[in-house]
Write a structure and sequence with these properties.
The complex is a heterodimer.
Chain A: H1 2-5, E1 7-13, H2 17-29, E2 33-39, H3 42-51, E3 56-60, H4 68-78, E4 84-88, H5 93-101, E5 106-109, H6 116-152, H7 156-171, E6 175-181, E7 188-196, H8 201-210, H9 212-225, E8 229-231, H10 239-244, H11 247-252, E9 256-263, E10 266-274, H12 280-358, H13 362-384, H14 395-410, E11 418-424, H15 434-452, E12 459-469, E13 475-483, H16 500-511, E14 515-519, E15 524-531
Parallel strand pairs in A: 1-2, 1-3, 3-4, 4-5, 11-12
Antiparallel strand pairs in A: 6-7, 6-10, 8-9, 9-10, 12-13, 13-15, 14-15
Helix pairs in contact in A: 3-4, 6-7, 6-12, 7-12, 12-13, 13-14, 13-15, 14-15, 15-16
Chain B: E1 6-10, H1 14-27, E2 30-35, H2 38-48, E3 52-55, H3 65-74, E4 78-83, H4 86-92, E5 99-102, H5 107-118, H6 122-129
Parallel strand pairs in B: 1-2, 1-3, 3-4, 4-5
Helix pairs in contact in B: 2-3
Classes of the chains: A alpha/beta, B alpha/beta.
Chain lengths: 538, 130
């Protein structure tokens, strides 16, 4: 017989020593290796269960003083899988049925003890099976509960709390707690995340508290080994306080298990439980928890990565907001600056106008008007070319006709006397060169209007701007003004002429690193080419 | 015979105000006063009964050009804005404006704007506009 080989611990509830020996004999005779203990009163029975426990109970139906029914009820309450076999003397069938109902698994008459070995064997097998299936159910239920809890938890704390609670509820372990790494260094501290249950809660916490040093040692062992780690001698040096504790609390910290939670190759927490018995069922639960801890580790790492991502996204959003604000402020400042420039230009124009009013000589008035027209050219450049945002590539084509109007008025060109043809292509002129370019156009057009068509001579002026590439692949801008007027005086050399207008022109062209070429055959054509993509130092 | 247009100048920049006054007078219109604030502008509007005001949109002092424009409008004064803040005028005060001039402004533009407002005959306009 399978069970015959192993030592079966029997509790025999029997008032008669002789009957007890008879029962023991009947079993040993059939090859059962048994250790036994007899009890006949309630205190004795309780003592036996608390101290050593047992694998099965044989209970006499006739128990003077206490009674078989209460004894069976007490045992059944202590362990619902415990095999209890009633050994009956002379009792009625009704009595036997009553006792079976109070919790006995089987019934063997005293005068047919030969049936006992078979009955005990069956009862042990049935108990083992029901224990096993209950264990499986519990493990499965724990796995489901813990997995669900972990996947739904909002934070590490919540996830740990959920796992601790699920583990305690499914295992019957009275206390569970978590260790978390300190912010800095390799130390772990006992987290506030813990779960305790049961009637002996206060006592358990007290005893567990006294065993803290041992618990911490266990946690560190688990951290080091990265394995589920058991301690069956939990109390260590705290035996004295253990002895003073009530039995259930003492049992509750009899052994403990520590389960490391590993994520990204790093222990990120340790779950620790007081597991009173360290039986097969406890080890099964610990195995399940180790699996859940694996999930927890992965999940927490993912969560941590998500949090980091969210944080960096938030930081990015904040940075963007700051940048947008800065840009807005920059735009406002730029606009304000432009308004001030415009107002200042207005004052300069006004000053020149007023000075011109007072000038007595026509020559002086003309000189002031020319100066004024240069300021107006600048003002126009401001209005058309320097937009609050960025210079508009097409702005030059709006600027040039306006400039021509001003110059025609200045030089008293009659309506219809001179036609202007513009061929301004959209060219991206570097912002630092807009002012010199606009003034160059002013000088070139001024020259044409002032000198090319004396005495009401009719004609036309062509003005243009375009871009192309030079031999080295660099962007080159071209400006030109050509008229069909009277042409240049004989021996004209732009490099030696000292008139203010041409001096200004040469200086401006030099400023944009350009070159001037002049054709003076029929009429006058002046062409300026300058680099567009030079790094700006202006 | 049409009566000479009466012009109020509302401008807190003295040099600019002086230039505008000279330019308008030379052109043959009557400048009835120069104000450098909203309060002064309203006082002059009531006292001198101008037909039109050249109004700087941004004035020193607590009252902005918007309010000044509204007050002048209520007193049947037409308004030509003369401003470096043209985009703001276009955005906020379009209904109140008879015309706009973007600073810096030339005398020629001032005269054209006044002629537009006064409905001057086209010959004179053409002569001036070239």
């Amino acid at each position: 017989m399978a069970d015959a080989a192993s030592g079966i611990r029997l509790l025999i509830v029997e008032d008669s020593e002789d009957d007890t020996l008879m029962v023991v004999h009947a079993l040993r005779q059939r090859g059962f290796a048994i250790e036994w203990q007899r009890a006949e009163s309630e205190p004795e029975i309780k003592q036996a269960i608390d101290d050593a426990g047992c694998d099965a109970v044989l209970c006499d139906s006739n128990l003077p003083g206490y009674g078989a029914a209460p004894a069976i009820a007490l045992l059944r309450a202590a362990d619902r899988h415990l095999p209890i076999i009633l050994i009956s003397g002379k009792i009625s069938d009704e009595e036997a049925v009553g006792l079976i109902k109070s919790g006995a698994d089987d019934y063997v008459p005293k005068d047919k003890l030969a049936l006992l070995p078979g009955a005990l064997d069956r009862a042990l097998k049935a108990a083992r099976q029901s224990r096993e299936s209950e264990r499986r159910e519990r493990e499965l239920s724990l796995l489901l509960a813990a997995t669900r809890a972990v996947s739904q938890a909002e934070s590490l704390g919540a996830a740990l709390e959920a796992v601790l609670q699920a583990a305690c509820e499914h295992s019957g372990w009275p206390i569970g707690q978590a260790w978390l790494p300190e912010e800095a260094g390799g130390a772990f501290r006992l987290s506030s995340v813990w779960h305790a249950q049961g009637d002996t809660l206060d006592e358990t916490i007290r005893v567990a508290g006294e065993a803290r040093e041992s618990l911490s040692a266990l946690a560190y062992k688990a951290i080091e080994s990265r394995q589920v780690t058991w301690s069956s001698d939990l109390m260590g040096r705290h035996r004295s306080s253990l002895r003073s504790a009530k039995p259930p609390a003492r049992a509750s910290v009899g052994s403990a298990v520590a389960i490391p939670v590993i994520g990204e190759d790093e222990v990120i927490a340790v779950l620790e439980f007081a597991a009173p018995r360290r039986d097969r069922s406890d080890e099964g639960i610990a195995g399940i928890l180790a699996a859940v801890a694996g999930q927890l580790g992965t999940l927490l790492c993912k969560k941590r990565a998500d949090d980091a991502l969210r944080e960096s996204e938030a930081a990015l959003r904040e940075m963007n907001a700051v940048m947008e604000q800065t840009l807005r402020e920059r735009d406002i400042l730029l606009m304000e600056l432009q308004h001030r420039v415009k107002n200042s230009l207005q004052v300069i124009v006004s000053l020149l106008n007023l000075r011109s009013d007072q000038a007595q000589e026509e020559l002086a008035r003309q000189a002031i008007r020319e100066a004024s027209s240069r300021v107006e050219a600048l003002s126009l450049a401001y209005r058309y070319l320097y937009q609050p945002t960025f210079p508009d590539r097409t702005a030059l084509s709006a600027y040039v006709p306006e400039l021509c109007k001003i110059l025609a008025e200045l030089y008293a060109v009659r309506d219809g006397q001179v036609t202007v043809q513009t061929a301004i292509e959209p060219v991206a002129i570097p912002i630092g060169r807009l002012t010199p370019v606009s003034l160059i156009l002013n000088e070139l057009l001024s020259n044409a209007f002032k000198h090319a068509f004396p005495d009401g001579r009719k004609g036309s002026v062509a003005v243009g701007c375009r871009a192309d590439l030079d031999d080295a692949g660099g962007q080159v801008g071209h400006l030109w003004v050509a008229d069909d007027g009277i042409g240049l005086p004989a021996g004209f050399d732009i490099e030696v002429v000292t008139s203010t207008g041409l001096l200004i022109l040469r200086s401006l062209v030099a400023q944009i690193e350009g070159r001037i070429s002049v054709i003076g055959d029929c009429g006058t054509a002046i062409h300026v080419r300058f680099p567009l993509d030079r790094v700006e130092s202006e | 015979m049409e009566r000479t247009m009466r012009v109020l100048i509302v401008e807190d920049e003295a040099i600019t105000a002086l230039d505008l006054r000279q330019c308008i007078a030379d052109f043959g219109y009557q400048v009835v006063g120069v104000a450098d604030s909203c309060v002064e502008a309203i006082r002059l509007a009531e006292e001198a009964r101008p037909d039109i005001a050249l109004l700087d949109f941004h004035l020193k002092g607590p009252v902005d050009g918007m309010t000044t424009a509204r007050e002048l409008s209520r007193r049947a004064v037409r308004i030509i804005f003369v401003t470096a803040y043209l985009e703001q005028v276009l955005q906020h005060a379009r209904d109140l404006a008879t015309g706009y001039l973007a600073k810096p402004v030339s005398r020629r533009d001032v005269r054209l704007a006044l002629m537009d407002a006064g409905g001057e005959d086209s010959d004179r306009r053409r002569a001036l506009a070239c």
